[in-house]
Amino acid sequence: MQEKGTISIHTENIFPIIKKFLYSDNEIFLRELVSNAVDATQKVKRLATLGQYTGDLGDLTVEVSFDKEKKTITIADKGLGMTADEIKKYINQIAFSGATEFVEKFKDAKDANEIIGKFGLGFYSAFMVAHRVDIHSLSYQEGAKPAKWTCDGSTSFEISEGDRTERGTEIVLHINEESEEFLDKWKLQEILDKYCKFLPIPIKFETKTENVEDGKDDEGNPAYKSVEVDNIINTTQPIWTKAPSDLKDEDYLAFYKELYPMSEDPLFWIHLNVDYPFNLTGVLYFPKVKNEFELQRNKIKLFSRQVFITDEVKDIVPEFLMLLHGVIDSPDIPLNVSRSFLQADGNVKKINSYITKKVADKLSELFKKDRVSYESKWNDIGLFVKYGMVSEDKFYDKAKDFALLKNTKGEFYTLPEYQEKVKAAQTDKDEQTIFLYSTDPEKQNTFIESANKKDYDVLALDSPIDSHFINNLEQKLEKTSLKRVDADVVDKLIKKEESTSNVLTEEQSKQVKEVFEKAIANQSYTVEVEGLSPEELPVTITMEEFMRRMKDMAQTGGGMGFYGAMPDNYKVAINGNHKIIDKILKAEGEEEKGRLAKQAFDLAKLSQGMLSGKDLTEFVKRSVDLI
After folding, report:
1. Is 339 annotated as belonging to a binding site?
2. What is the pLDDT of residue 290?
3. Quick one: which residues bind ATP (predicted)?
4. How much is the pLDDT for 95?
């Protein structure tokens, strides 16, 4: 039997197009061919289970090998195999309609994934790296004859009787000159590790050396010897294919270490397992992120039937959960699709919503089950929760019951709890409840102390997401506003009906203002003399809440770059009721008044970490003189 013919693709242009579009991602040829081999093996196992194949299955390992001298790569399986007629059906007739339209549509395409998979061209990815491909196959069917198929990358093929004696298929790639980089053990191992590490059928690639116990040495201790064993590159039953009831914490942690060897242990994990209205399995881990906004992409790996597809999962996983680590496996996501196609796929949107719900349910469960433990993890998981609340309304609705606010004393409250806690003391004359917050409790300690003296509570909102979270809370919480604790003097942060009167006369206030303006001599500071408690500082430097917030958001890329580029402008509040102000007024000579005013102003800057360089040196010298 020998036959020659033309591959039925209705055009001579298909192979150049395949080569052109897939060349940039040519390593996927190995994924496609090994996946095909695994599929064929699984099918023969299934037939045996159904009693439709009664022969001995034998060793079903898929083997990948290469010969550097002959410049070949071989993928061999012991699966279904094919008859000559089946080769002609499945290989020669590329299964899509309207090939001419296909060529026209994709002649300018850049995305290899858009071509492979959508039109069933997985096998033909071999021609990305090979100038000739041979198929040797023997069908499982009783009495079947072996067949050999050869194609040189044109639309011409040759099929003849083969010499294979074992059930299955062997695909031999004759590597072209441009692709000889793949004739390397470590390169092939790398690709297999990337794409085939969790395929459900054992895959052998070369051999490896292992130390095995070999009796005892002279002192009675175990002796070992080195032996060559098959190098099986994959784990056929990764944990996401198992039932959660069959797994222990150690199994999840071991798998995490396998995925991310250099990472700390995760905080906890979520096992995904759903079969309606779509199929989805996987394990998502919450890593330790702390307060660093580590938007490390490419940490969640997408698989389809245990074949690695991509680690760009932004359309499948909600944006705020891109910080998670782990694995998602779904056969309902087309195997090789472009990202634009992925976005349009209905199942992708359903999966996105499902993952959001599962994460919310898990966090709620942890909070209710052990609040103390949940609070201890909040510094790590708070970033996820706040990011989710800011970016998705549906998640906010669920998270408002388990999101925590932490104050500067280290105490935790849910949103409803905190509203109840501060309502009495921190409601202003307009019936607005004011949440005071600090973005840097160390630096803003002076203002926190002033607030605490009035029995006000101050939240610690010092993570990178908090500038956006603050705005989100104001939009969601009724009759509630948030003010940074250093946005004004404490009496003006929460305005009450009563106010402290200024003991200075109008003329004295004017004089004090002029002394300080001359001493400061900087247009970025606006001086105001106010009636404050004598217990408050003589001088307080603040930045108005709106400008503070816009600048905070600009620092985290919140679309407020305009404000970030604006110069800082501060308000200098002079406490007319403080004894130091009285001392300045009574000082003899304008020079002495100015020296004392500058000292009081520099003290205010020092308390906020704003004094440095030459100004700090002069402040120290002046302090020595005053002592």
Report:
1. yes
2. 54
3. 32, 36, 77, 82, 97-98, 169, 339
4. 37
